[in-house]
Amino acid sequence: MKNIAICYSEHAVKVSDSYCSGASNPADVSIPNAVTSVYRVELATKKHLLISLTWRDNQLRSNHLFSVNIFENEDDSFSGSTKFSKIFGAPRGAKLYELNNGLKIEVVWDLSRAEYESRPEPITGFYVMILVDSQPGLILGDVEGEPEARKRVSDCRASPEFWLVSRGEYFSGEGLYSAKVRFCETGIYHDILVKLCGEDRVLSVYVDRKSVVEVRRLRWNFRGNATVFLDGVLVDLLWDVHDWLFEFGPRGKGYGAVFVFRRRRGSDSRLWLEDKCKSFEEGEREKGGFSFVICASRNPG
C-alpha cells in the first residue's frame, strides 16, 4: 500500500517547457538586498582557498557595503573555521591584515565610480582585488582601466586562477523572485523567475519565460526536487519552502524559502539529493560544478 506522502506527491510536480507570455509583472518582482558570490582560488603556490564576496545595500548611509570571507580547507568546503572575515564600507581604500598563522591578506578596492542596476553589486566602473601574501588571489572589475591597480597586478609573479562555484541572492517580500544566471562559461545568461502564489501556494519556476516546473499541493510538497535541461547540461532544482509556508521561527528572522539550482558535473548522473547534501556555501569539489541559490523571506528587513 502506498503511503500518504507518495499519494499526495504523485502528479503534484510538473516539468514542462511551455511558453508563458505573462510570467511576471516587473513591478511586483522583489529586489535582492544582498548578493553573495563564492570563488575557488588557486594561488601561485598551488594552494587553494575559497573566497566569498557579499554585496549589501547600506540604507543608513545610502551607499553599498561589501564583505569578504576567506576559508582554507583541504576539501574546499566552508565546514572549517573562517580564516578571514571583514566588512568594507568606504568608496575606496586599501587594507592589509596579518593573520595569526602569518598569512597576509590585502584588500584593495575602488567603488567611487561604480554603476549599479537593481542589485547591490556593481556592474561596471569598479574593481576589487584580494591579495594573499602579496600575490593576487581574486581580481574583479575593471583593473585594466586603473593604472595603480594594473601596476599592482603586473608586479606580481603570476596571474591568479579563480572561478565562480556558487552564487546566492537574498530577497525579502512576498513570492516573486527573479534573477539572471549562467550555468556554464560558454552558456548564455538565463532569466529565472520563481513564483509562490495563490491560496493553495503553487510554486512555479520559469526559465526565459518558459514554465519549466510547477508544484501544486505545496503544503504536502514543501520540499522536493526536479531536473531541467539547460545549455546542454542537466540542472537539478531543489526547493524547501516549509518555513515560508508555515512561518516557522521568530518573525522576520532567517529565510523562509530556499531554491537551489545545481548544475551537474559531467560524470554525475545521479540526482544531487542522492549525494551527501551540503549547504550552498560549501561550494564544489570540481571546477565544473556550479550552484545558484535564491533565499527568500516573507518579512522585509
UniProtKB/TrEMBL annotation:
<dbReference type="InterPro" id="IPR008586">
    <property type="entry name" value="DUF868_pln"/>
</dbReference>
<protein>
    <submittedName>
        <fullName>Uncharacterized protein</fullName>
    </submittedName>
</protein>
<dbReference type="Pfam" id="PF05910">
    <property type="entry name" value="DUF868"/>
</dbReference>
